[in-house]
Amino acid sequence: MSISEETHQAAARPAPGIPLSLQQEFLCAMDKGDEEGSFGTKHIIASAWRLSGPVDTGTLQRALDDVVERHEMLRTSIVRDEDEPSQLVHPPSPVQLLIRELSGEDPDTRDRVAEEFFNEVESGTYRVSELPHVRAALGRFDEDDAVLVLVVHHVACDGWSMRVIMRDLTLRYAALRGHSGTDLPEWRQYREYVSWQQGKPSDPATRRSLDYWREQLRDASIAAVTADRPRSAGLPSVYSTHRFMIDAEVTSGVLKLARAMRCSPFMVLIAVYNVIMHREAGVDDVVVSTFTSGRDHEGFHDSVGAFLNFVPLRSDVGACRTFAELLERTRATCIDALTHDVPFVLIEGEAPELMAPFMEDDLDVIAFEVLQFPEALDGQFIGDVKYTEMRRRLLSQPVSSDIPDGALWALDILPSGEMIGSLKYNSSRFEASTMWRLIEDYDQVLRNAVGDPNIPLSEI
């Protein structure tokens, strides 16, 4: 056998087992099999882009396949049936690319059809065992107007990674079309991140952070709301998504208040959420969960993988007289948490009661996030195609993608000055009316808070 033949055969074999990252261990803790939970058929992340310009589907297929070859996490499986779970890198294989002709004459009609197409693709089922983890769907209105939807299983990707994938796809597509200035940046594989992370639990900075979390979360449990139906009802999980918009006037008020209080918009928005959880959970000591990018090493900013980190934020709402006082307290909590950000599996070991509500029959936890990702190539021509991300989503979905457990509240401040929100929940546990009431309550508290931050919490 020649050297070239040996090399080819080696490339066709899966790479040997690699240890899991701490984020992947967190996903394994929510393993409910291949239908539900973190490895379920609907635990995916999706993004969609309007494409202006001629799209050559053969070149798009080649660009998708090149991205899979570049980022090995998109072709990595997690081996869970062993005492020590591991990840296994497989050789590249073609990406599934669905092509659909869409109808619509005027721009408004096309915008709605595009969003319906996005929702349809996102609500599909995608088995974690089917590689590569990325799938694509192209809906075409005509030769110069199309919608591209990317779907990636969440075990291999997070929101930041989706922007990396799309950037690399657009640059690779342009390069294959013969356009110059489309070189891809240097990058590192996820397995390199795992190797780097293995030394983190024992380093002095991590130990100091764990000391902080031990004190910060002493005797704490995460805030939870009472579900309309208990877990013991035994109904299969069916996730729905309510979408809503917060107008530009209120969004502008959030930004102004953030500047005045030396806060980020996230801090204002989660302080309002603290008020809602204070009411719904009936507790003064409120612990809410959110997410950070988990990319504390800048060398992995161009990598694809599960970096997202679950972070608990604790605030004593009962000790605050006004919203402004609560915002100051929330600001301090957020700064401390970000300063001591470490993978959640390490935090959980210091706070044994924190996740107890997830086990309660009648309770459910609603995580909160404000989408904050690196700048994408949005609204720009890359080669001969202009890419515009579809962030302004207003169509709710009775059946949507899943999360492993609980519910998820997400907000996105758009360049237009508006804010788009979504509340994803298990409709087997909650009535739709319960979720809409929470959204309406949040909107009202937010309006009152930005209108007068010194308003007493008892009146907000």
Question: What is the overall pLDDT average?
Answer: 94
Distance between the termini: 77 Å
Taking all Cα atoms into account, the compactness measure Rg is: 23 Å
Strand content: 15-25%
Which H/E pattern describes the elements? HEHEHEEEHEEHHHEEHHEEHHEEEEEEH
Helix content range of the residues, please? 25-40%
Report low-confidence residues grouped into runs of 5 or more: 1-11
Structural class: alpha+beta
Q: Write down how many β-strands occur, each being a DSSP E stretch of 2 or more residues.
A: 17
Task: Tell me the count of domains.
Answer: 2
CATH class of the largest domain reads Alpha Beta
Strand order of the largest sheet: 5-6-7-2-15-14
CATH H-level superfamily title of the largest domain: Nonribosomal peptide synthetase, condensation domain
CATH fold-type name of the largest domain: Chloramphenicol Acetyltransferase
CATH architecture classification name of the largest domain: 2-Layer Sandwich
Individual helix count: 12
Q: Could you say which overall geometry the principal axes of the C-alpha atoms support?
A: globular
**Largest sheet at a glance?**
6 strands, mixed
